[in-house]
Amino acid sequence: MDSNQKRFVEDALDLLNELDEGLMQLEMNPLATAPLEQVFRTMHTIKGGANMFGFESIGQLAHQLETLYDLARQSQLQISDALISLTLHAFDKVRDLLKEKDVAKINDPEALKDHLKAAANFLKEVEAGSSSDLTKTSITIHKDELATFYLQISPSINITEDGNHPLVFIVQDIAGLGTSKVILTKKHSGEVLHWEVFITTTTPQSELESYFIFVENECAVKYKRLLACDLFEQPQFVEYLNTLGAQSLDMAKIEGFVALRKEACDQQKDEDNDESANNASGKRTAHDSYIKVSKRKVDDLLNWISELIILQAQLTTTASSIQSAALADVTEQLEMITARLRDTSLEIGLVPVETLVTKFKRLVRDLSKQLDKKVNFISEGSETEMDKDVIEMMTDPIIHIVRNAIDHGIETPAERRAAGKSEHGTVKLKAFNSSSYINIVISDDGKGISKENVLRKAIERELISAGDNLSDEEIFDLIFHPGLSTASQVSDVSGRGVGMDVVKQKINDLRGNVSVKSMSGKGTAIHIKLPLSRSIIEGLLVNVADTRYVVPLNVIERIDRIPYADINRENKVCKTVVVNEEPLTVLSLRQQFHDEVNPPKTTDIISVLVNGVKKGIAVDKIEGKMQTVMKPLGDTYKQQDFISGSTILGNGNLALVLDPARLFSLTQQ
Amino acid sequence: MRNNDNATNAYLTFALGAEKFAISVNSVQEIVELEQVTKVPNAPQYMLGIINLRGKVLPLLDTRLKLGLSKTEITKKSRIMVIDLETNDEKNVQVGALVDVAREVIELSPADIQNAPDFENYKTDTPITGIVNSHGDITMIMDITKIFSTAEIIQLNHSVN
Fold first, then answer.
1. Which of the residues A259, A507, A514, A532 has the least number of beta carbons within 10 Å of its own beta carbon?
2. Is A643's CB within 8 Å of B41's CB?
3. Is A55 helix (H, G, I), strand (E, B) or coil?
4. What's the CA gap between A568 and A584, in Å, rounded?
5. Same-domain pairing of A124 and A159
């Protein structure tokens, strides 16, 4: 294959994804012209390229199908499920073919024969005018309407505003749906009394309500639709909120602003009505301009930036030892620029989650047909960006979760009717950023995970004993245990329990974590949290016998300082120590890896969460929090996998980054 | 050089104890002095730890231990040879090899090199590809990439654990 052909294959694979996306939109909206035009254009591009670079049979197929869609453009043919399926299957085959390395194989006339024939037959039928039996689909044009809501969310449990409870994220998510203002009222004890959210959004109330499905038992939510336009455009309202301070809201005042706004709004609406009609379809075309850059160049760039960050740290250390105001000044400015450069360059390697979403739309479509279930797939925040490598590594795990959701979660239409739900189940993939993490939540409104089933299975397989008292969280965490599948019947869709443990492993490898929420009859939500970057790590720098280690911050629960003698009672590496009035299994890095010459007086116990169990790592001294670039140790130290990498400190010395999960599995052997 | 019909190759000579060795300069990136080494726990003894080579993290290996000799005593003359290892998947892997003394670069033509006798007392399979006998002063030519091949290190680690 020459370089032109290679480039065509690469482009074509991208185009095929776009095509899938377009076809899927078309399937939902058979009368829409924008996706039809897009599909037609994409096919045309594929056809042109294929013919130019000598892939005749692909060109031929694209031509046949393009003819069909051209007829649809001229309204001589109606877009039908049959046509979409035919096209999807044909281009699936093309996609498979393009992954071959051998041009002769790609050009094998036999490979696409069936699809060509199917397309030709379809065309014949259309020309014979027998297409009238195709299912007619009616659509309702739904126009999103802007409205301002007032929500009061009162948790019934004790949580803090910076806590890890999903409710905190839900409130953030809701606030992210439009122009919003969140007012937090705390109890005297510091816990959240309630959140009050003003939000102007196009999201309907029913969808706002759906956010709280999984936390229904843990909070009470009041909704109020204030008016059908943007209250934030009323300056007095915004000013009132900003000057509110610690006072509580005066709803009467709000009502006043609402009335004022309503008047202004009604006037404007009449003027706007004519304009807005044409704007709906333009959404996808407003792209930034893009250039294609090879992955290697981006990797190189990131490598150099990493070096720069390390040098920067060294410079800062050196500059602080030389007492020169001028040098300190320059160093500080350089530090700022370096940080910006780092952020920008990290962004270069990021791609929107959208690429994943297209794949899932396909998966959901195919699976629901196969299983005779009716499933809607909703994605949110697909513009959220992630590292391309991470997306690639996460694709299979997420596919697995989505599969599970459809196969085990969503019920059949009959079951759903009986349960008083709509026939269509919903699978939702939501992506969003929070501090230095990417969050992906996959939720469904199916039957939920049966706690009893999980418990029964776990007891049967002796993973836990019958008397164990487990929290909901711990029970759901069991589904990640190797060899536990709750499907009473193994289907060919979601395997035989070799899945969720791999999912968890992959997420752990990326230094992320995953949690499950489920309500019987209401659905399941799986929350995946991944660090923004694979190479930049936030951690605690600790010292053990003059060796420095970094413990990743994402697993740390708390830190306690105890006398060194306390961990020295038993002559074992892993021992139970009472920390914070709780017994804790503690591994002393000093006793495990170093000698006990000159032990310190005190030892810091870092409590970490390993596979849902709290464990302690004993270190000599904690030196501080740091954000650093992680460098892999390479194949030479592959066996020492409890060290996930190293990082260069400001003084040029190296610190070892620990992988806590693997560290503890070391002592279990 | 005695035979001019053959092109010469450059070799770097170094010493392990009293023995002199030479390796092809093509696989040597540079020679650096020994500075701070960070030990990685639970590794075999010959894997001394990791070093920071101008922002690059390299594993440091004890050449003597790897060859079955006694542990290298660190002196002022101890040097690290930074060696490029070729791997199957085009990735360029570098390791640091600690030696007692790094000497000089010499030019040798193939005719200078004699076939090596069997070395029973060296652990690794035939790392010596030839010897140079210069008036009784013997230098052994070593295939350095073979000694430090990653695959072998991994395998060795397996047997250690």
1. A259
2. yes
3. coil
4. 14
5. no
